[in-house]
Fold this protein.
Amino acid sequence: MRFFLVFLIVLFSFYGCNTRQVKKVDVSNIAVNFKVKRFDIDFYSAGPENLQALKIAYPYFFPRSVTDSLALSKIDNGARL
């Protein structure tokens, strides 16, 4: 029974590797617009007055355990990096 299951798995894996019917999709006419928002530039150019807006824009970088004073001290020490 185990041999039969292994044989079926190998058979289906070879069947899935069929390269005769490769579909080629033309994606050259699709326009893609994207904008890269860099956290490091926004973070080190921020100040105490716009820290809340930064926390709203990037909530995953500011967990509840990180206080505002710790974030502000990191902003001030950004020149050392």
User: Anything to note?
Assistant: Residues 29-81 form one domain.
